[in-house]
Design a protein that fits this description.
48% of the residues lie in helices and 13% in strands. It has 260 residues and is an alpha/beta fold. The longest helix is centred in the first third of the chain and has 22 residues.
């Protein structure tokens, strides 16, 4: 069972008891500094409920506030939310327009809350100009917020990010008068990392994907070389605090070798 159907298994008192047990087990445990989340399953959740896709997208948008609150309570410093991939831009025009409107409203709400430091990442030039401008405005409005950092990945693709980073690096070196030959001789991994969308931020310690799919689909390809993964059966709109705590428990139980 997935999503809302699975929630019917636990009554409210049992759910609260299980949540408290999970919380108790996490006391003193290692907490990921940076958590990435692939928000997957909105349309399938809506289909199971007999609702249009827009209902699933709105329910998924509403769930973000819960996730950020749970993350803050746990001591997470940075959350990256994959809200729209470059592949999603090929969806039917009417669905894409609705989805972009929901995303704009969601990011604006996060900015208005004044609790989160929003950073927009992705190929925003692929989005409608008005959408990109509203996203930039939300980011600027939270620039001085000291709270939990929230990356919103919109128009994002991992391969696109790496290509953009290389283009940015080449352009920067060209402006400095460096030739391609000189760059090839001196290029280091760190030079590319300095031009990623996440430059200046720690790599993700944990990536969570909902909906039961067990693949990254290009999410944070460069940054996730040492990342731990947690795949959850629940569709994103039905993701619960116990699901999040289970992900943290799984992370805490792993021995992170970091390539050593």
């Amino acid at each position: 069972m997935r999503g809302s159907l699975k929630q019917m298994v636990l009554t409210a008192p049992v759910y609260r008891l299980y949540e408290r047990r999970l919380l108790k087990g996490l006391v003193g445990a290692a907490v990921p500094r940076h958590v990435g989340v692939i928000l997957d399953g909105n349309r399938r959740w809506a289909k199971v409920a007999g609702e249009p896709a827009a209902t699933g997208h709105r329910a998924g948008a509403d769930k973000i506030d819960d996730l950020l609150s749970w993350s803050e309570e746990a001591g997470v410093e940075l959350v990256t939310l994959w809200m729209l991939s470059t592949d999603n831009l090929a969806r039917p025009a009417d669905e894409l327009a609705t989805l972009l409107r929901i995303i704009e409203e969601t990011v604006a709400r996060l900015a208005r809350d004044g609790k989160w430091r929003v950073r927009v990442m992705g190929a925003l030039e692929l989005l409608p100009a008005a959408t990109a401008e509203r996203l930039h405005q939300a980011e600027a409005a939270t620039a001085d917020v000291a709270g939990l950092g929230v990356n919103v990945a919109i128009g994002y693709g991992g391969r696109r990010e790496i290509a953009d980073a290389v283009r940015s690096l080449l352009a920067a070196k060209a402006r400095a008068g460096m030739s391609i030959e000189q760059l090839a001789e001196t290029l280091e991994v760190e030079h590319i990392a300095e031009h990623l969308y996440t430059r200046g931020q720690p790599d993700p310690d944990l990536v969570i994907r909902t909906s039961g799919e067990q693949r990254l689909s290009g999410f944070l390809l460069w940054q996730s070389v040492h990342t731990e993964y947690y795949f959850c059966e629940a569709y994103w709109p039905a993701f619960r605090k116990v699901d999040f705590l289970r992900a943290l428990r799984s992370y805490a139980a792993r021995e992170r070798r970091l390539g050593r």
